[in-house]
Structures are given as structure tokens and as C-alpha cells.
Amino acid sequence: MRADPIGFACGAALGFLGDRVLGDPRRGHPVAAFGRAAHAVEQRLWRDHRGHGAVHALLCAGGAAAGAALLARAARTSRPAGIALTAAATWAVLGGTSLGREARAIGGALAVGDVDVARERLPHLCGRDPQALDGQQIARAVVESVAENTSDAVVGALVWGALGGVPGLVAFRAVNTLDAMVGHKSPRYRRFGWAAARLDDVAGWPGARLTAALAVLAGPDPRGAWRVARRDASRHPSPNAGPVEASFAGALGVRLGGTLAYAGRVEHRPVLGAENRPVATDDIERAVRLSRRVSLLALGTTVAARTVGSLFMTARRNR
């Protein structure tokens, strides 16, 4: 909280706007570069052992955070430099616009009855086996992914940016990327990816709760969102996806969860919002709009929280 709150507010807003206007670049994305570096480290360190996975997570996430901290320290003497660095980091780590574009592309294919195209595009959004899904199941997968990734790709990053500035932004995205790379329960990563998965659970905890709270406030049915989130969030096997998906299910008045297929393995998850109707294709657009409202509210909330925190710390030092 010691950093300039005005500089953070300006930089975060500019970076948020950059993501909204530009989205992710097709080539040369910093997150993709981090992924390649993390993969190279994995090739050297991999063993079917939790300790090796913990070292991998520490080197990759810690190295990214340390590099960001050095850049932030160098930019501390100049407000314009600090704003520019915060804007660039915020733009690099946010993925709300690309999330919405992918969801809408799948929704568009489903709307015209082209399930094959929807199946082809679904892996861009989530890791489920698209060949096992019909049109309605694809729509449900998209809504669930929009909900979860609103937290992972936007809100969580903004929360850690408010807490830790540029290093917080970068560290959160590094941890989230590592979880996507090695944190799943495949035979190769069951042990090696354990540390990355647990670290992502910890890092994602505050953002998931804020996302759920904002979905309750911003959704078309706040009472329904609160009811389903309070009742069903803990039923989900993920401590962070549960509150987010349950709040979206209640806000949109749809039923989420159930049987899922991931590359040869099947999961039977509890249903969230069992009293609601099944997801329809039109709900994809409704979910994207809710995600955008939640993201904008998260920007305002995190900027305000950092400003208040900075003022509080200043007041304490001046006593």
C-alpha cells in the first residue's frame, strides 16, 4: 500500500481500458512468453514428486514477481513511469475481453446450429472434451467458464494489484498460469503440479469471493444469486470456482454443474441452482454481460480499497 494510490488508480484504469479495447495480442503476449519459460524449467525439473513441483512453482512465480518488483522499484521515482508500468502490467495480465470474445464466438455458432464449430472453439475457453458434449452442454460449459474466468482472468488480478501493485499483478497471473499448465490431475502432474494448484487456490481465494459478491450485486436477480451462492457454493470441489459459479447460476437463473468430461476422465459435480432451468444458448451473452459488469465494479472496488489503505497507512505513520 506504500505506492502512489493515484498512480495505481490511473495505471489500473488505463490497463483495464487497454484490455477492453485491444484484448490480447495474437503474438508476443507476455503471459505466453512466461508459459514458454515455465515449460522450459519444467523440462529440467520434472519428477513425479511434490518437492520438485514446489521448486518449479517457486522459481517460476517467484522469479516473475521478483522481476516485476525490480521494475516497480525503478519506476518509483517518476509518477508517469509508474503509471505506464502499472498500465502495461494490468493490460498484460487481464483477459476479460478475450474471454468475452471466445464465449460469444461459441454462442454465435450454437445460435445458427453449427455444433461442430462450437466444439472446435470450446478448447480455446476450457479443458473439457468437446466431442462428448451436445449444444446445450456446450452452452453450460461456456457459462461456467465465463463465471470462473471472470475471477481468474480479471478480478483476482485486480485484487492482487491493489494489495501488491505491479508485483502483485504479475505474481497472480504467474500462479494462475502455472495452475493451468501443471495443476490438473493428470498422471504426469498429480504430484508435480500439487504445489501450483494449492498456491492457485490460496491466490484465488479473495478474488473469487469478491467476484461472487459483485455478481450478486450486479446480476439481474440479486436475491436468487445470494440464495444459490450461500447454499451451493461449498458443494463444488473447487474452493474458488464454487462461489463464483453458484453466484452466476443464481444471478442468471440457470442450472450449472453436473457431469463433466476432461480428456478421458469424467467428473460428477453437484448441481448448482438445481431449481433453475437448464442453460440455453442466449445465456452465454447474458453471462458475458454480467462478467463485464462485475469486472468494472471490481476495478472501482480495488482502486478504492488501495486508496483507502494508502491513506490509512499514511495517517498511522504521521501519528
Cα(first) to Cα(last) distance is 17 Å
Mean pLDDT: 93
Number of strands: 4
Estimated share of beta-strand residues: under 5%
Shape: globular
Order of helices and strands: HHHHHHHHHHEEEEH
User: Major sheet, described briefly?
Assistant: 2 strands, parallel
Helix content bin: over 70%
Uncertain runs are none
Number of helices: 11
The Cα radius of gyration reads 20 Å
Trace the largest sheet across and list its strands.
1-4
Structural class: mainly alpha
Explain the overall architecture.
The mean pLDDT is 93. The chain has eleven helices and four strands, in the order H-H-H-H-H-H-H-H-H-H-E-E-E-E-H. It is globular, with a radius of gyration of 20 Å. It starts with a helix and ends with a helix. The strands form two sheets. The protein has a two-stranded parallel ribbon with strand order 1-4. Helix content is 72%, strand content 4%. With 319 residues, it is mainly α. Strand 2 and strand 3 form a beta hairpin.
Topology:
Elements: H1 5-22, H2 30-45, H3 50-75, H4 79-93, H5 96-111, H6 115-121, H7 135-182, H8 194-218, H9 222-232, H10 241-252, E1 254-255, E2 259-262, E3 265-268, E4 277-278, H11 282-317
Parallel strand pairs: 1-4
Antiparallel strand pairs: 2-3
